[in-house]
Amino acid sequence: MNDQTRCLITAIHHNPHQIVLVTAGAGAQALADLLAVAGASRTLLEAIVPYSAASFDSFLGYTPAKHVAQDTAVCLAGCALSRARVLAPAAAVLGLSCSATITTDYPKRGEHHAHIAAWQPQNLITQDLHLTKGARSREEEERLISNLMLNCLAQAMSLPERLVQDLLPADNLTISETDFALCARQVTNRETAYFGISADGRVLTTPPAAILSGAFNPLHQGHAQLAQAASHHLGIPVAFECTAVNADKPPLPPETLLNRMAQFAGRWPIFASAAPTFVEKARLYPGIPFVVGYDTAVRILQPRFYQDNPANLLAALHEIQSLGNTFLVAGRLGEDGLFHNIYDLPIPAQFSSLFHPLPFRLDISSTALRAKT
Predict the structure, then answer these.
(1) 3-170, superfamily in CATH?
(2) Residue 186 and residue 272: Cα distance in Å, rounded?
(3) Which pTM does this prediction carry?
(4) In Å, what is the CA distance from 204 to each residue of 180, 196, 271, 272, 332?
(5) Which end of the chain, N or C, is less surrounded by CB atoms within 10 Å?
């Protein structure tokens, strides 16, 4: 290891960020370098090398269209971020990933390329490298890609140090950054109505096909399985939505909003909006189904959320209906110990077609999980 690399890694280890690193195809030298300098335990929470296709797919939770691609590397980084949040819930964390294909012991028909990503709640940094085929040995390609990973990590940590890259004229390196923090500030300040983050880190500005709204404090298996059941029932994908401005709770600070959205990184699309009520959501997302639990459906039908005026409640339901939205209602275990479903709701007769049952039950509560924690 040269002095420049050792100096950079020392700076990384003195940074408060902690990371989960995932690398496949190349980049293992970056892990070795991090471990070779004293202080690695302050930086590295976990390192995963899913080298086989089975291990790779297991870590992602699905088989990607291409294992070596930018969107795949971003999803790896997102899953690494989710893992880091579990391992160090109170720390500043990020997920660092690399997916690459480089020189090996047989001729490759395709190009040699690497895709690197560093995902943290406030931003996403990507590096895409296309190498001049046949110009370097495997060791040289490995070193170049590992150095890029260390540079990506330094950029994510806002460190000034960088390793000099030995790029050839025919090499192509593209670096980009997506600022989620700016989007969150715009929503919480009501400068924009909503935005979304896809599983592979793209900022979404068009409405989803269906949404499941909630506080997601924390996200748990019940949310994921409810979205899956609703998607199967509707035959369309269901996205999640975290409400930055809630009807009966204080607005979420941008940092809190981003941390809650980070729970979905690499796995599911998540939207954020400043629409606290479903009539306001219907104006943002006309014509789509809202997936709700019984407890949420009860609040939708309570006049207290409409200035304690039953006429306002009926007017809101009429507007939602006229905008083409519907509610898909899943049952929920109540505080009384009984399981309640759509048939227990006081739905006005003229709005019976607005609410539809979703056969689903999984008795997990975010409130109970917070109490346990």
Answers:
(1) CinA-like (3.90.950.20)
(2) 11
(3) 0.91
(4) 11, 4, 8, 10, 31
(5) C
